[in-house]
Amino acid sequence: MTQLNTTSTADEDRFAEIVQIIELTRLQTVLGVNSALVKHYFQLGAIISRRVAAAEWGDGVMTQLAAYIARTQRVLRGFTRANPFRMRQFYEAYAHDQKVSALPRQLPWTHNLIILSQNK
């Protein structure tokens, strides 16, 4: 007969410190990855903004960029035609204020997109 895997209160008390460290590390990892991704999107937005402002790139380039990334970086997701525009918008919304520009990098990308969609 197979025993059910149940956790007793004694086990919870005995292993709580270990589990707490594991959960904290997982959270710190997620936050670190998120911060790196948002910083990455900010940097890409800066490049896109600069090239559009210099009239090097037009709207059609975003479609070409998305297709190129899909073709050459097959494991990457999220680089649809719309996302380079969002990255540019994100950069342009925060680039001119150094104090403010650090804050959105602490939020998940989805939260930043919600904020941008609510503001003009």
Automatic annotation (TrEMBL):
Top-rank taxon: Bacteria
Annotated signal peptide: none
YhcG N-terminal domain sequence ranges: 17-117
Pfam families: DUF1016_N (PF17761)
InterPro entries cross-referenced by the UniProt entry: PD-DEXK-like_domain, YhcG_N
Protein name: YhcG N-terminal domain-containing protein
